[in-house]
Amino acid sequence: MIITTRFVPKNRDAFSVWPFVFIKPEKNNDQRLIEHEKLQCKEQKYFLVLPWLLCYWLSKKFRLGAELRAYRRQVKSKDITVGKAAHQLSKSNFGLSYIGAVKELRRKAA
Asked: Which domain holds residue 7?
């Protein structure tokens, strides 16, 4: 279920807590962003919501892995290009350059 709200953290456009996707009003029509959050909702449901969220919030490594998995699935389904995904990752707080993000996205998941 998608909920449009202004109560999204300043450094984000959206976030998900299964089964909800909370999105800023100005991003309400961004289908790529919505798909990204839906993929993370599926992971939350599979791994149990509370443990997944705790790991996501407390571990930068887990958060990067979750973002990479979601972006890789989007790239595989041709919902987003590697370049666009790398751009989004390089804007995030992971310390990745654009080139570093491209390399991570192309790396096979362990």
From this structure: 1-58
